[in-house]
Write a structure and sequence with these properties.
The structure holds 2 protein chains of 2 kinds. By secondary structure, chain A is α/β, with parallel strands linked by helices. Chain A contains 8 helices and 10 strands. Chain A has a 6-stranded mixed sheet, sandwiched between helices. A 4-stranded antiparallel sheet of chain A has the order 2-1-4-5, covered by helices on one side. In chain A, strand 9 and strand 10 form a beta hairpin. In chain A, helix 3 packs antiparallel against helix 4. Chain B has one domain. Chain B has 11 helices and no strands. Chain B starts with a helix and ends with a helix. The chains are: A alpha/beta, B mainly alpha. Chain A: This is Cu-processing system ATP-binding protein.
């Protein structure tokens, strides 16, 4: 699905990715974890073509993504910070994104799921952070693409919406999609993900299931396993 | 690109600032016409306002729009769209909505005043054309500045400096050069110097069209010889077009290389 070979990226003097190799197979939920500044978002943005790598090769669905924008038809992306033009209404934004990508009716179901109907005629500038995130989720999931990338999907969500999101992610997985998630909430990651990709200093430190991680670090639970990686490497 | 253009245009058409800008020109047009009662004088006063204000608004609006829409632009970048069409669309959206405010705001009072029967229609059209050019130029420059500066404050600072430089400082330097080298023939130098600054170029174009070049003295005569002819007019418009095309080109190239 997604293959990355020898990816390097430097921002100014800071080497963010240093020779990262990763291959993600089809189907399943992959959590990308790592300490702050480890290059999670840079990795995701490189796959999306928003960050242009200094060196290395990325291919999505077997095609090199360099100088190509068509492959993004196959990717749904949820950005970390959702900030929309404040003069647009929710309804209009959804219509606009559909107009830019392709027609779909999936949005009605998602609006229903996240109880957004009363907000459809409100301007985006007046919405609360959590509601904006819900709109963001609708925009992401309505296209039914084979690859879904979620950058901090839980931020600002209330507990009920969080539950709905988990169900939604599971349902998408059932359809055979490949889902990449970054999150700081370990319990969320533990609950939803099939595999963990742990990034440290711009390289993949670990890739495997949670139980493999627990055996490797010799820790009884997931949170401690992650903590032990961090203390070992940053002590 | 047209879809992006359409949406940023709609977005701006709904913003309060477009109306403030429109209302300002409307008011200015009405006040000048109905208090002045002289169309040519009104055009000259308008020129003085437009030459300074249009670049300022273009730069500020361009920079502001870019920074305000940054996160949304990132969302667009993740869609199957080309980078160049995203940025060109946004740029044209801003530039066209600003030009519309200018053309409608000034045009309406003039039409009601009876512009079509007046001989000043060409002067007035030239005023609106140069105003539109200045909007296109300075919005493009603003987008360039914003694209090259992550830091908002820095971006705004450079934008204001650019406006100040081309609007005021450039003239000062130009004048000092002319005085310093007054013993030499300066007609070519002053012609080129005028061409290199879009604000000066617009001002000279309008002044000469208004037939008050006598005010400009000897240089005025040379200018009249050059700009007054069709050849000069064409060269001037080519220069103005270059001022639009080059920044737009740089904008598309920078946007392709940039990390978001």
């Amino acid at each position: 699905m997604v293959t990355i070979k020898g990816l390097y990226k430097k921002f100014g003097k800071q080497q963010v990715l240093s020779g990262l190799d990763l291959s993600i197979s089809e189907g399943g939920i992959f959590a990308i974890l790592g300490p702050n500044g480890s290059g999670k978002t840079t990795l995701i943005k490189s796959v999306l073509g928003m960050v242009i790598p200094d060196k290395g090769e990325i291919s999505v669905l077997g095609k090199n993504i360099k100088k190509n924008s068509e492959y993004r038809h196959k990717i749904d992306y949820l950005p970390q910070i959702a900030n929309f033009p404040s003069n647009l209404k929710v309804k209009e934004l959804i219509k606009m994104i559909k107009d830019l990508r392709k027609p779909t009716h999936e949005d009605e179901r998602l609006i229903e799921l996240f109880k957004l109907t009363p907000f459809l005629d409100k301007k985006l500038g007046t919405l609360s952070g959590g509601t904006k995130q819900k709109v963001n989720l609708v925009l992401t999931f309505m296209f039914d693409s084979p690859i879904v990338i979620l950058d901090e999907p839980t931020s600002g969500l209330d507990p009920i919406s969080m539950l709905r999101l988990k169900d939604l992610i599971q349902a998408e997985k059932e359809k055979g999609k490949t889902i990449l998630i970054t999150s700081h909430i370990m319990s969320f990651v533990e609950e939803v993900s099939d595999e963990i990709v742990f990034i440290l200093e711009g390289k993949i430190y670990f890739k495997g299931t949670i139980s493999e991680l627990k055996t490797k670090t010799d820790q009884p639970d997931f949170e401690h396993a992650i903590a032990s990686i961090l203390t070992e490497n940053h002590a | 690109m047209l879809k992006i253009l359409k949406y940023s245009f709609y977005d701006l058409m709904r913003s309060r600032w477009s109306y403030v800008y429109f209302a300002f020109y409307l008011l200015l047009g009405i006040v000048l016409l109905f208090l002045n009662n002289d169309l040519s004088k009104a055009v000259i006063t308008l020129m003085n306002v437009i030459i300074i204000l249009v670049p300022l608004i273009g730069t500020i609006f361009g920079v502001m729009y870019y920074y305000n829409n940054k996160e949304f632009t990132e969302l667009l970048l993740a869609q199957p769209l080309k980078r160049s069409s995203i940025f060109l669309g946004q740029y044209l959206g801003v530039a066209i909505s600003l030009s519309m405010s200018l053309i409608l705001g000034l045009g309406l009072p003039f039409v009601f005043y009876g512009l079509f029967e007046s001989s000043a229609i060409w002067d007035f059209s030239l005023l609106l054309i140069t105003g539109t050019f200045l909007t296109l130029i300075f919005t493009a420059l603003a987008f360039n500045i914003a694209l090259s500066n992550e830091n908002k404050i820095k971006g705004f600072g450079y934008a204001i400096l650019l406006w100040l430089f081309l609007g005021v400082i450039y003239d000062g330097i130009f004048l000092m050069v002319l005085i310093g080298f007054e013993d030499y023939p300066l007609d070519k130098v002053s012609l080129i110097g005028t061409m290199l600054n879009p604000i000066d170029l617009s001002r000279t174009l309008i002044l000469l069209k208004l037939d008050i070049s006598a005010l400009l003295g000897y240089t005025g005569a040379i200018f009249k010889q050059f700009f007054g002819t069709n050849y000069g007019l064409i060269v001037s418009f080519i220069a103005l077009s270059l001022w639009v095309i080059l920044p737009v080109l740089r904008m598309t190239i920078t946007s392709k290389k940039k990390d978001f």
